[in-house]
Design goal:
Blueprint lengths: L1 H23 L23 H10 L4 H15 L9 E4 L1 H10 L16 E5 L28 H8 L3 E6 L11 E2 L3 E2 L1 E2 L2 E5 L5 H8 L5 E6 L5 H7 L2 E4 L28 E6 L2 H11 L2 H6 L10 H5 L5 E4 L10 H16 L3 E4 L6 H12 L6 H7 L9 H8 L5 H7 L2 H7 L9 H25 L3 E5 L19 H9 L3 E8 L19 H10 L6 E7 L5 H15 L11
Parallel strand pairs: 2-3, 2-8, 11-12, 11-13
Antiparallel strand pairs: 1-3, 4-5, 6-7, 8-10, 9-10, 9-14, 13-15, 14-15
Length: 571
């Protein structure tokens, strides 16, 4: 007991020291006076594509522009008056690089991200920074990265200016961004709601126009959930399309048990689809392929992204496990109507496996070791944040009592309780889950080919941004995002509408009988006072058809022309 208390105290002191060092760091460029560098300049709203073009042509000074966005980050992204999205700041380092870019004007073949300020998710290695994954045990000063991860090195060579780090959730396996080091990140649309996770800090920064582009990572929706909650564009590439070299894994000794089954993917969060495409074009380059031979040498196919021939698109409005709210279904059907009027063919898509099967398989794989063992070990003595309480109770329920408990609770929760066991499962049982996952992938590939379609669209999530603290109580709602991760498919999300005043409901009578339960009550709570929150659609395509996925996203973006922006953070 004494050793445990001593360890908790040690970890807490490490974390406090890391925060103190962050807060005491001086940023000389923030002291520069410029009439356009107050953090609220219209120039701060430029996209990554626009920024690169203006810097390359000499019409925009990269250093001045960086100062504008740095001041905006400092004003809106920190904990003192802002949304607490930032874990570390590197403004002066980025400013020095930005000053040198003026010498490149007029050169041939200028880098594709020239002068673009970006944020980088905290778990992605960056020279001089910590990568904690929301774990106090990763905050010791000796653990600072001595060099960039490969993906950061590649974007630097492409001309990008990494200047801030985005906050994440503890263990990076919850749809919120809160931990015992950096604290909780707020949603710029509504401070009482989550910004999503685990790339939540980066999602909030893009939504507030503090940066036009961010690099996140995604294992069950960690890029797309923040993009949905924050009303921006998020794209998860095909798993293994980009390198993970230098990215920490928020598990003990960087050994992620389920990574071989459902691998993490790095990808962009941005204000436009073109910015996501620009990111992919910038990193799918020979330097990446030469430095990580596990990555397929596939340059970005601009022709596929810019094609104009009509597409055949499948769609579904529900996965049968968690019914979407009225606004989510409306957003999908308005998108289908817009695509159809533009000359594309949209047809209903029959799911080969529904949400009951998909979500339970994910739960079985992720909980195969039992009792949240991989997460507990990753904490190395730190306490779980309270958000994990519900999941911990389910994981630790005695096996002998599980059948009885299942008879006393509703069908969906009882179903999930039966998916896991205290103490974990056998190697043989885990092998069978591997076979189930391969069969699932094969069934979706066959169904896609049988339908003769180019892409699938569906509600990005069934409900909007959650109130703080609810994420792990209603993880079942994220069956829509984890699907693409299980399939290894590229997937993107973008906002298409906002919740109207008469849509702030989640009526029990509108639901299938087996969904009239506690999850539905939590969904109804989520819908209260939700008017004005963004609603997104999701797009999926099969493996390595990333460019087609982005093309469909671009088509939807141009047709819908979503323009709402968050206002809560500037009030």
């Amino acid at each position: 007991m004494f050793a445990q208390k001593a360890r908790k105290k040690e970890l807490s002191e490490w974390a406090k020291a890391a925060v103190t060092k962050r807060d005491q760091k001086e940023h000389s460029c923030l002291l520069l006076h410029d009439e356009n560098a107050d953090g609220d300049s219209v120039a701060s709203s430029k996209s990554a594509v626009e920024t690169q073009q203006l810097v390359a042509s000499g019409k925009l000074n990269a250093a001045d522009h960086l100062v504008q966005l740095a001041k905006r980050c400092h004003k809106y992204g920190r904990s003192d008056g802002g949304v607490n999205a930032i874990t570390e700041e590197f403004y002066d380092e980025a400013y020095e690089v930005a000053k040198s870019l003026a010498a490149k004007r007029g050169e041939q073949d200028l880098p594709p991200l020239l002068g673009v300020p970006i944020s980088v998710k905290e778990c992605i290695g960056m020279k001089g920074s910590l990568s904690t994954g929301g774990l106090q045990c990763r905050t010791h000063e000796d653990l600072r990265f001595k060099e960039d991860s490969l993906i950061v090195a590649i974007v630097r060579k492409a001309g990008a200016l990494p200047m801030v780090r985005g906050n994440v959730g503890q263990t990076m396996m919850m749809p919120e961004s809160v931990n015992n080091i950096w604290g909780r990140t707020l949603n710029p649309w509504d401070f009482k709601r989550s910004c999503g996770g685990s790339s939540g800090g980066d999602g909030a920064l893009v939504a507030m126009k503090c940066v036009p582009l961010a690099i996140g990572s995604d294992v069950a929706g960690s890029i797309r959930i923040p993009a949905i909650f924050c009303g921006i564009v998020g794209f998860k590439p095909t798993s293994h399309r980009l390198s993970l070299k230098g990215c920490m894994k928020p598990r003990k000794d960087d050994r992620a048990m389920t990574a071989i089954h459902i691998p993490t993917a790095v990808g962009p969060l941005a204000s436009t689809v073109d910015d996501c495409a620009l990111f992919m074009k910038s990193v799918c380059v020979p330097e990446l392929f030469a430095s990580d031979i596990s990555v397929p040498p596939l340059p970005f196919d601009t022709d596929s992204y810019t094609k104009s021939k009509p597409l055949k698109i499948g769609y579904f409005s529900t996965d049968g496990w968690f019914e979407p709210c009225h606004a989510a279904k409306r957003g999908l059907m308005e998108t289908v109507d817009a695509l159809t009027k533009a000359g594309h063919t949209c047809v209903p898509f029959d799911l080969p496996t529904d949400g009951w099967a998909n979500y339970s398989l994910m739960v079985k794989i992720n909980g195969a070791d039992g009792n949240m063992r991989q997460y507990k070990e990753a904490l190395e003595g730190e306490d779980f944040v309270p958000e994990f309480n519900t999941l911990r109770q389910a994981a630790n329920a005695p096996n002998l009592l599980r059948p009885l408990i299942r008879t006393l609770i509703d069908k969906r929760r009882g179903h999930l309780l039966g998916c896991i066991r205290s103490g974990g499962i056998s190697a043989h049982a885990f092998g069978q889950l591997s076979c189930d996952l391969m069969q699932m992938r094969a069934s979706w590939e066959q169904a896609f080919m049988d339908a003769g379609i180019d892409a699938i669209i569906h509600p990005a999530l069934p409900i909007p941004a959650l109130p703080h603290g609810m994420g792990c109580d209603i993880t079942s709602a994220f069956s829509y995002t984890l699907l693409a991760n299980m399939l290894l498919w590229p997937a993107g999300v973008l906002p298409v509408t906002t919740i109207q005043k008469d849509e702030q409901h989640y009526n029990m009578n509108d639901l299938p009988a087996d969904q009239r339960d506690l999850y539905a009550k939590l969904a109804a709570q989520t819908m209260k006072d939700s008017a004005g929150l963004p609603v997104s659609v999701a797009i999926m395509t099969p493996n390595f058809r990333d460019e087609t996925c982005l093309r469909v996203m671009k088509e939807i973006e141009s047709l819908v022309q979503f323009s709402a922006e968050p206002q809560e953070y500037i009030r």
